[in-house]
Design a protein that fits this description.
Keywords: Signal. With 119 residues, this protein is mainly β. It contains 3 helices and 11 strands. A hairpin with an 8-residue loop joins strand 10 and strand 11. The structure holds 2-acetamido-2-deoxy-beta-D-glucopyranose (2 copies).
Length: 119
């Protein structure tokens, strides 16, 4: 459900988001819900094409109680190496189509903007 990156890459990405604060107990970055419009848009580059990840896609609202709520970043550093998992924050914005006819060398993923994408 997240955009899971290696720890060092998640740190670099969240460092670009204004006032992101690492919350070590939870392993996530807290964000200010009031600032979302000022957050940067990131792009994932796949095979030379740019796929945007907008602030509203990666800012997750957390409802803590009746009276308080907060936001956390969907960019989470949890895995070693170069692997990146493009979870719900990415898939919500981009429609994906998978083609696999038993031949892994011919496997394909098509990506297009989802009809209900935020922008
Ligand atoms: C992150 O947010 C949670 C929930 O609002 C809060 O309990 C925690 O203290 C915050 N952590 C930091 C490092 O600000
Ligand atoms: C959190 O969710 C509960 C239950 O849906 C709701 O009653 C409450 O108002 C929410 N809190 C905030 C701060 O939005």
């Amino acid at each position: 459900m997240m955009l899971v990156y290696c720890v060092s890459l998640a740190k670099l990405i969240n460092a670009v988001i204004p006032r992101a604060v690492y919350w070590s107990d939870a392993g996530v970055y807290n964000l200010s819900c009031d600032n979302v419009a000022r957050f940067p848009t990131f792009s994932v580059v796949l095979d030379g094409s740019y796929f945007d990840v907008q602030p509203l896609d990666y800012t997750l609202k957390v409802n803590e109680s009746e009276t308080s709520s907060g936001c956390t970043s969907a960019f989470v550093g949890a895995i070693p190496g170069q692997t990146i998992i493009l979870g719900a924050p990415f898939l919500r914005h981009w429609f994906t189509s998978y083609s696999f006819d038993g031949d892994k060398d011919a496997a394909k993923i098509g990506i297009a903007k989802a009809a209900n994408a935020s922008s």
